[in-house]
Amino acid sequence: MSKVAMTVNGKSVSGDAKGNTLLVEFLREDLRLTGTHVGCDTSQCGACVVHVNGKAVKACTMFAAEADGAEVTTIEGMANADGSLNVIQQAFQDHHGLQCGFCTPGMVMSAAALLKENPKPTEAEVRDYLEGNICRCTGYHNIVKAIMAASGQDVGAIAAE
Amino acid sequence: MYAFDFERPTTLADAVAALSKDEAQALGGGQTLIPTLKQRLASPSALVSLTGIADMKGICTSDDGALCIGGGTTHATVAREAADSFPALSDLAGNIGDPAVRNRGTIGGSLANNDPAACYPSAALATAATLVTNSRSIGADDYFQGMFTTALEEGEIVTEVRFPIPEKAAYMKFEQPASRFAMVGVFMAKYTDGVRVAVTGASEEGVFRWTEAETALSANFSGDSLSGVSLSGEGMITDLHGSGDYRAHLVGVMTRRAVAAAR
Ligand SMILES: Cc1cc2nc3c(=O)[nH]c(=O)nc-3n(C[C@H](O)[C@H](O)[C@H](O)COP(=O)(O)OP(=O)(O)OC[C@H]3O[C@@H](n4cnc5c(N)ncnc54)[C@H](O)[C@@H]3O)c2cc1C
Ligand code: FES
Ligand code: FES
Predict the structure, then answer these.
(1) Do B94 and B191 fall within a single domain?
(2) Residue A61 Cα, ligand 2 centroid: separation in angstroms?
(3) Nearest CA in chain B to A57
(4) Boundary residue ending a domain (B129, B163, B197)
(5) 3-state SS of chain B?
(6) What is the pTM of this model?
(7) Could you read off the pLDDT of B187-200 as tens digits, one per residue?
(8) How far is the CA of B228 from the centre of ligand 1 (A)?
(9) Residues of chain A positioned with their CB less than 8 A from the CB of B6
(10) H or E stretch including A115?
(11) Residues in chain B within 8 Å Cβ distance of A65
(12) Rounded to the nearest whole angstrom, what is the distance from the C-alpha of residue A105 to the centroid of ligand 2?
């Protein structure tokens, strides 16, 4: 066991982690931040995406000890200060970008990372960026639409197919 | 995962010392090693993370025109920072896996692992890159020794990779859509003194140079010069995604596309 300390959603936290404790285990089991999901545990599905020092990473494929000293943001840190949904979350609701919701935390975290890098992505760029995020329910169209809408672009022309 | 100790040194010297212990193993971005540990296919006594070593990160151009990339540099950084100096390499890095994988995975980890379907080995071989380690420099022609096998000794760390920048180059990847690795990937690099072509994803021996195509393209740099050149399916990987003959054919197609796309 060794001590790890990091800032999660703006709060300083610390805890004991074994060498092989994954970041996602630390977040979910030690900090009880269960919004970050584990879909596959094999680096494929993206349900576990969080931001570490501003960059999207798969929390199931990073050790907690690697995040020592880092700034971590999870889905719990995404809402506006008054508790209302942020613009991406609201767009997912408005455009039916979720059904069961299991993939949604990872989708929102990936979308936020994309819009930070590329504030007005094309539809193709959105699809490309979501390559590592799998959704079993929606068929992706409404997720893409929600992200385009969150970027302030007109989504009237995007077919629901 | 089996239990192991975890260390995160901040200097190369400390990492080398930590890796000299029995059964200690280096950890780069973990994008290959962590899944391997989860499957209990590796059981190191200690993991020595290289991510805290600032000297192993970053990109620069050397006086002799080579692009030098620190072994701990992520795919995302290469995609971004090599875009002007070596666009084909930037393209390659920018199409590895997905954005989250690219934010962690490193060039040193990819080259040390030498997966037969990984992208970077083809770039290193096609450019005759030099792999610099904590103890020596190794030319790419000597470095790759068959799938998952390299010239690296136990505990040796890839600290830097030096790519001679070609006049023109392209990487063409035919993606295996489930894994996002290369079904077949071809890196073609044209220099004043000739063309080199390296192929990943296809051969049971791992990355290899397609010398017949190199000769043809060095004589006449056009896709047409490849019309008489073909590769046999013998020794090519056959799996549920495609036969050896199919992969051999794809190598030709991807090489022609690389010639057409070279910049
Ligand atoms: C979903 C997914 C998709 C992927 N798609 C692709 C793809 O399309 N193309 C592709 O090429 N790769 C792909 N990868 C693999 C990815 O590029 C890995 O990042 C890379 O293979 C390993 O780099 P790493 O830094 O993560 O190394 P690690 O996983 O940390 O380590 C891999 C091996 O290298 C050793 N090692 C690490 N760093 C060094 C070093 N500097 N010196 C010596 N030894 C070292 C480790 O001990 C270990 O044996 C994918 C991975 C995932 C999870
Ligand atoms: S749980 Fe991490 S990628 Fe699926
Ligand atoms: S909404 Fe169910 S997995 Fe995406």
Answers:
(1) no
(2) 8
(3) B100
(4) B163
(5) CCCCEEECCCCHHHHHHHHCCCCEEEECCCCCHHHHHHCCCCCCCEEEECCCCHHHCCEEECCCCEEEEECCCEHHHHHHHCCCCCHHHHHHHHCCCCHHHHHHCEHHHHHHHCCCCCCHHHHHHHCCCEEEECCCEEEHHHHECCCCCECCCCCCCEEEEEEECCCEEEEEEEECCCCCCEEEEEEEEEECCEEEEEEECCECCCCEECHHHHHHHHHCCCHHHHCCCCCCCCCECCECCECHHHHHHHHHHHHHHHHHHCC
(6) 0.97
(7) 999 999 999 999 99
(8) 37
(9) 2, 19-20, 63, 65
(10) helix A104-117
(11) 6, 8, 49
(12) 11
* B87-109 mean pLDDT: 98
Q: Tokens representing B176?
A: 């295996």
**Which of B46, B51, B101 lies closest to A66 in CB terms?**
B51
Q: Residue B184 above 90 pLDDT?
A: yes
What residue type is B192 in one-letter code?
A: T
Chain A hits for B97, CB-CB cut-off 8 Å, are 131-132
Give the Å distance between the CA of B167 and the centre of ligand 2: 40
Q: Rounded mean pLDDT of A124-144? A: 96
Counting ligands in written order, which one lies closest to the CA of residue A110? 2
Question: Selecting from 3.10.20.30, 3.90.1150.10, 3.30.300.20, 3.90.550.10, what CATH number does the domain A2-77 have?
Answer: 3.10.20.30
Find out whether the beta carbon of B166 lies less than 6 Å from any atom of ligand 1.
no
**What number does CATH give the domain A87-150?**
1.10.150.120
Q: How far is A159 from chain B (nearest CA, A)?
A: 24
Predicted confidence (pLDDT) per residue in B210-263, tens digit: 999 999 999 999 999 999 899 999 999 999 999 999 999 999 999 999 999 999
Name residues contacting ligand 3 (CB within 6 A): A 98-103, 135-138
User: Does residue A148's CB lie within 6 angstroms of at least one atom of ligand 2?
Assistant: no
